[in-house]
DNA sequence: CGATGATTTGACACCCCTCAAACAAAGTGG
DNA sequence: CCACTTTGTTTGAGGGGTGTCAAATCATCG
């Protein structure tokens, strides 16, 4: 695996991609609170570098004490823990607009790894810049807290899925979740999005074996709920899929609170 | 179920229990950061009422917008979600010293329920008092953030357990986790603590059926790892249990960070 | 002493895992 | 351009972990 701290990579894409990050990150954060032009400018300015990271690279090592925050601009990444027996469990998927906040440094070291699953375009924000951002822009601070709480809420929903739903419904539920989250940043329609993960990644997310993952996916195809070809996922019957998966998007908190 | 908002309950125990909460809550929060005498006094003063709540009472309804924070002083409570089919999945256990922070109100409504599992003594802290506490006492604010991050980290560890560990190791892991967390607030020795939950509560926590829960527990007893009688859990061989469960307490972040 | 809730045990079915192997696609080097 | 490797996908067979159904036992309590 290649770490993104490789100096040959750093900063290579500054300028060219300058506008891309704010777009997708802002789309996400503005689900939490309206941001002013000043907030947006500060956010864009806080990004130190854009980096292109190959698939399956480690962004944050388990037991690291990271000094940089990351925002995913393009591609899929994940939080994971690796067991002694080599089994990997993915504990969260990071989509474009999601961020990894080294606020975790309060804890005295990351207790999980962060890695890319596909090639990613990543915006790096230094911890000090992030702290300043929070102090000087309360609306951004609020939005970041919202993001953290939403992550926790999503983790709880995954616990519910792993604890109570059979593999098929679990996959269906994940498909619904990704549709909602990707649509929130403009990367999915009601019925279609790009899902560039391998069966193995999905299996490690759903807590099932690769073999069973394949069978479960076929079942969803055979029952006419989805089509999945060339990494493009098409939902054939959204309403029926949501019922089947027992999906209720409330836990994603994608609609801005009244306050 | 009886809600604690019942006026006959409110405030009944003020004074008598006045010192109990700070003790256990402070023991927990001081794992995050040292607190000054001023912080402690402010924390104690912020508690509006102590309430005795019977077992199986709902503290926060799913879809509520709670205006009160709770700190558990005695007893066990939980976060949970209930599926359409009636299956309950417990997503977090709240032990003495743990708190439920209505900070979740940023999200515009709770997305899960909070309920007592045993009879509990609960300290209620109004949302405004909590906000003031955070503003005027940065060390408390930091400690509360630490608590939130630790909860998220624990949720991730539960995902790992549900996704990768068989039921027996999952139970063993939970036993280790509870030992560490209870010891941190003075309610467990290295080998012994009170675990006042029913098999059903534990089954709903581990994501297995009540019947299987029973078998798995017997297995741990038969292999000489634990004794569990009269709600008292005794760990016969802590080292062997931790190896069996693949338990690494790092995710609990119970040792204060250097910073 | 009957009612209720908690624990225990047995039988059987099914979900899902493991092992194994075949197959496809994409890169790599000769 | 073709062997060859690597990575990802698909399929089959068999076994084990768990769920469900059913019923017995036990404890607590009014």
Task: Give a verbal description of the structure.
Two copies of one chain form a homodimer. Chain A has 259 residues and is of the alpha+beta class. Chain A has two domains: 20-155, Jelly Rolls; 165-252, Arc Repressor Mutant, subunit A. Chain A has helices at residues 20-29, 37-46, 127-136, 138-164, 167-184, 199-206, 210-222, 238-245; strands spanning 49-53, 58-60, 68-74, 77-82, 88-94, 99-100, 113-116, 120-126, 192-194, 226-229, 232-235. In chain A, the strands form three sheets. Chain A has a four-stranded antiparallel β-sheet. In chain A, strands 2-7-4-5 form a four-stranded antiparallel β-sheet. A three-stranded antiparallel β-sheet of chain A has the order 9-11-10. In chain A, a hairpin with a 5-residue loop joins strand 4 and strand 5 (88-94). In chain A, helix 5 crosses helix 7 and helix 5 packs across helix 8. The termini of chain A are far apart. The structure holds a DNA duplex (30 and 30 nucleotides).
């Amino acid at each position: 695996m290649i770490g993104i701290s490789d100096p040959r990579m750093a900063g290579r894409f500054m300028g060219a991609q300058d506008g891309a990050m704010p777009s997708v990150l802002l789309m996400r954060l503005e689900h939490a609170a309206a941001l002013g032009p000043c907030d947006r400018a500060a956010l864009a300015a806080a990004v130190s570098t854009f980096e292109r990271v190959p698939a399956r690279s480690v962004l944050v090592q388990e037991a690291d004490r990271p000094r940089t925050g990351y925002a995913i601009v393009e591609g899929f990444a994940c939080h994971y823990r690796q067991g002694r027996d080599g089994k990997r469990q993915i504990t969260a998927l990071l989509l474009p607009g999601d961020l990894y906040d080294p606020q975790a440094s309060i804890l005295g070291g990351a207790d999980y790894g962060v890695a890319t699953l596909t090639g990613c375009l990543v915006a790096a924000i230094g911890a000090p810049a992030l702290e300043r951002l929070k102090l000087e822009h309360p609306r951004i601070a609020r939005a970041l807290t919202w993001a953290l709480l939403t992550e926790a809420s999503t983790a709880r929903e995954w616990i519910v899925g792993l604890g109570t739903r059979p593999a098929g419904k679990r996959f269906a539920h994940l498909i619904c979740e990704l549709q909602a989250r990707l649509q929130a940043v403009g990367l999915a329609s009601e019925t279609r999005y790009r899902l560039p993960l391998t069966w193995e990644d999905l299996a490690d997310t759903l807590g099932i074996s690769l073999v069973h993952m394949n069978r479960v996916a076929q079942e969803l195809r055979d029952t006419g709920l989805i089509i999945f070809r060339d990494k493009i996922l098409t939902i054939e019957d959204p309403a029926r899929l949501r019922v089947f998966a027992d999906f209720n998007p409330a836990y994603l908190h994608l609609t801005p609170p009244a306050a």
